[in-house]
Amino acid sequence: MATWHKKVGEAVKRDEVLADIETDKVVLEVVAPADGALSDIKVQEGEQVESEALLATFAEGAGGSEGGEAEGASAESRGDESEASGAESDEKVGDKIVAPAARKLIAEHDLDVSKIEGTGKGGRVLKEDVQKAVKEGNAKKSAPAAKSGGGAKAAAAAAPAVEGERPEKRVPMSRLRQTIAKRLVQAQQTAAMLTTYNEVDMTAVMALRAQYKDTFLKAHDTKLGFMGFFVKAASEALKRFPDVNASIDGTDIVYHGYQDIGVAVSTDRGLVVPVLRDTDSMKIADVEKTIVDFGKRARDGKLGIDEMQGGTFTITNGGIFGSLMSTPILNPPQTAILGMHKIQERPMAVNGKVEIRPMMYLALSYDHRMIDGKDAVQFLVAIKDLLEDPARLLLDI
User: Fold this and answer.
1) What's the pLDDT score for residue 355?
2) Which helix (H) or strand (E) holds 156?
3) Which residue has the higher pLDDT, 377 or 17?
4) Dist. CA 275–CA 14, nearest whole Å
5) 386 and 245 in a common domain
6) Whole-prediction pTM value?
7) Does residue 112 lie within any of the structural domains?
8) Please, are residues 244 and 254 in contact by the beta-carbon 8 Å criterion?
């Protein structure tokens, strides 16, 4: 259990968010089944719950008045329903009117709502206003007070365990962080993981992007980034090297006749990997739009579990954080993962002359139990060739 947003007896409207449940992949919202109020909370913040466990009882009617029919809210049934809707009612906090989505972000980042400028109707504080305040860092509480009770959230907000010149604070790992840690260790312990490196000259892709970025934006209402090129190049390379697109299931090899590529997205809660389905048939514009949507919903905790399941290959981009080279870790049961990195100008020998070119190091980590070194190297070279001559992606050569 992560957070209760409503107290027992507090009036709520239908579909208003009652609580958040943090799973090992996403945060699920538990919404009110009708107008009414919580009559009893069975599970406290920080406690672990099983699927379909009873979280609370809910009484229909204004303010949970008598005569309302009590109804149970479970960890699975209500959580799934919440995917479709957020809360509809605002709440007054101090002298500010705060939208429900904004209220959730304010609580997550422990902000002082009085320091946030609302741009909505009548000065209403919107989610975008909170996101701006988080980015600018100008709405932090000057002296946050430790809260009593509340499980994991209370533990995280507690004062440092050791005061003085070397303060420390102990907080429990989130379910997502525990799962990330478990899977990373599992990948290193169970796979014969190796990494091969290469570099790609990004001149052609950057020129194409510069030439068509404005037209692309007008035509598709989304920016032309680099990830679309990498996803399409990887899709083509995966068709040529089916071993890289396979997975290991016990002593069986599962060859996938489709390309479902996971794209690693960094959030405040940790790394999540939503999956692009059938990327071979996706247009670059569709790839870019979907990735933007994934990133936004991942940061808001709105991704569904089904959107992060499956996947035959993964791409991770440490370059957005400035990484020049790294060794990505496999995402089991997949047998390969591609690491993108920072584009950096370097002197290169081109036709016997030294030229300054925008270069990117590529890293392919692979499971040597499944993929031979020759195939891994040739797969990475195929991606390099496709990116250095993007016309190949259109001509299928």
Assistant:
1) 97
2) helix 151-157
3) 377
4) 32
5) yes
6) 0.62
7) no
8) no
Q: Is the pLDDT of residue 346 over 90?
A: yes
Determine, yes or no, domain membership for 25.
yes
Neighbours of 367 (CB within 10 A): 25
> Of the listed 368, 375, 385, 396, which one is catalytic?
368
Residue 118 inside a domain? The answer is no
Joined together, the tokens standing for residue 100 give 């429900």
Q: How many CB atoms lie within 10 A of CB 216?
A: 20
Number of domains into which the chain is organized: 2
Q: CA 201, CA 384: separation in Å to the nearest integer?
A: 8
With contact defined as beta carbons under 8 Å apart, do 29 and 75 qualify? no
Q: What is the pLDDT of residues 48-88, one digit of tens each?
A: 777 677 888 888 875 544 434 445 555 443 333 333 433 34
Asked which of 87, 119, 142 is the last residue of a domain, the reply is 87
Range of the domain at 64: 1-87
In a domain, 62, yes or no: yes
Answer for the pair 126, 120: CB distance below 8 angstroms, yes or no: yes
In single-letter form, the type of residue at position 244 comes to: V
pLDDT of residue 112: 87
Is 368 designated active site?
Answer: yes
- Tell me which of 20, 286, 372, 396 is the catalytic residue: 372
5 assigned to active site: no
